[in-house]
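Before any further analysis, backbone shapes were mapped to integers, which produced the following:

***
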Amino acid sequence: MDDRAGLYRRGEVLFSARGFRNTSVSDIMAMAGMSAGTFCNYHPSKEKLFMEICLEADRKLTEAMLKSPDPDGQPARY
């Protein structure tokens, strides 16, 4: 796993477990075993990382919902 993917995954785990306010960049970096300066190489802020994670989760959910058949057997309407 590269550094960017590692930070993303650790952020995902910590934000899910602790929430945004109770997760710090230091927490993410400690879990990833990286220095704080490394974070800035990949993400300008904790907020930007959080938004990236939220947008990806939304994209995955939307994709899954669009693939799901309607439980009533009706064709999907868009």
Observations:
- The mean pLDDT is 89.
